Amino acid sequence: MKFNFRFIISVFILLYAIITLVFFNFYKELAIKDTKKEANSMLNNMNAIRTYIEEVQRPMIYNLMKDRETFDNYFNSKILSSTYISQYIYEKQLEKKELKYRYKLVATNPLNPIHKANAFEKQILEKFRNNEIKDYFSILEENGKSYFFIAKPIARNKPNCLMCHGNPQDAPKRLLAQYGNHSGFFEKVGDLRAMIYLKIAIADIISYHKSSFVTGGIAMFIVFILFIILIYIIYNKDKKLEDRKELLFEHQNRLAVMGSMIGNISHQWKQPLSHLSSILINIELLSERGKLTNDKVVSKVNDANTQITFMSNTINDFKNFFSPKDNNNSFRISDIVNQSIRLLQASLDRYSIKVKIDIEYDFTFVGSRNEFVQVFVNIINNAKDAFISNNIENRVISIKSFKHFDKTVISIQNNAGKINSLVFDKIFKPYFSTKDLSVATGIGLYICKVIVQRYKGTIQAKNLENGVIFEITFES
């Protein structure tokens, strides 16, 4: 469960990183979209101003000029040039805006050389002239920086435009004196002279919208933290339920083991009780015949004490097995193996099962002796049942403890026959048993797995040629 929780958190962190990246890109696109909308509106305003000057203001001023001399001598770009006037208005607007655009008019045949289009601008202008596009938008890369770029064409030439851009002989002398007669002339009605554009660094757009980024990012982070808290709450509840379920399983398994142990107690006491009965009968017979000497009394008493000690040790083994007060103590694995065998000795003798013990590495185990005794008891009992059901004659269980590289291994091997390969992967699952569940709980091996994993170990089973081996492994 712990590893699942870590996996879920890792997935959530990865998703959070991906969503944050998507969120940033979304807000970046949204910021560019808003900027594009504003820039488009500004360019439309510039074109509207130019149209007003060309269609209203300039004709009215020309009408006020009664003769050619006035036209030549009093031409002034501040009241007649739509380019000059729109540029001036833009600069005034820009003073009030936080986002600083770069506005420019470019042409291939300008009067003023500062409006000369470069190669990139000429390409766009040519597309406008050929009616391939109505406006242009792109993200440019210049000197390692990204720029927002939007362009629109100005209105095509009207007849009054040719007064300044037609034949230079017809142009105002003051205009010729200002710009010369090398460029900006010999255009025709309907020609597209120029385009206007706005350009701004993407970094400036993002910086301008950073409050939106920060607000959205904080909101996402809060939602993410709430999700983590919710998952942690669910995880804790699930873990508690899992722990309670495992405790219930262990209790259920211990009750089942207790039932079989009561039978073992009666079997293990039968022989010493019979022996005690025989001792008492012998003492009685010797007494009746007058042959009860002091030495014989001492000998018989010693024999009786041996049997009573055996019975007492048997009771202590069973009592210790069911005692809950043995946590966090140190035990040798040989002690745990031997106690397990003593608990099952009567059953092993009854069914002629021989146990071979080879403790090559007697490591110290820290924890609950009873829990690990329960592991051995469950596995040995399963082997006993397999011997009986498979009608095996030569019944042997081998228990070994050894060191393998940097790992400690305990193996419990039997020759009671293989486990069916169709169900092999299910043997450590709860409520699964190869026996009838009316006589088996189906949780014995599951409890073994739970206990071993509780102490950071692993347990696995392998089919051998004529039996099964269980291996319990711990990192050293």
Question: Secondary-structure map with pairings?
Answer:
Elements: H1 2-64, H2 68-73, H3 77-80, H4 82-95, E1 102-107, H5 119-129, E2 136-142, E3 145-153, H6 162-165, H7 173-179, E4 194-201, H8 202-208, H9 210-288, H10 294-321, E5 329-332, H11 333-350, E6 353-359, E7 364-367, H12 369-389, E8 395-404, E9 407-414, H13 444-454, E10 457-463, E11 468-475
Parallel strand pairs: 6-8
Antiparallel strand pairs: 1-4, 2-3, 3-4, 5-7, 8-9, 9-11, 10-11
Helix pairs in contact: 1-4, 1-9, 9-10, 9-11, 11-12, 12-13
Structure, explained:
This protein starts with a helix and ends with a strand. The longest helix is centred in the middle third of the chain and has 79 residues, at 210-288. A 5-stranded mixed beta sheet has the order 6-8-9-11-10, with helices on one face. It has 13 helices and 11 strands. The protein is rod-shaped and about 170 Å long. Helix 1 packs antiparallel against helix 9 (210-288), helix 9 (210-288) packs across helix 11 (333-350) and helix 12 packs antiparallel against helix 13 (444-454). The protein has helices at 2-64, 68-73, 77-80, 82-95, 119-129, 162-165, 173-179, 202-208, 210-288, 294-321, 333-350, 369-389, 444-454; strands spanning 102-107, 136-142, 145-153, 194-201, 329-332, 353-359, 364-367, 395-404, 407-414, 457-463, 468-475. It has 476 residues and is an alpha+beta fold.
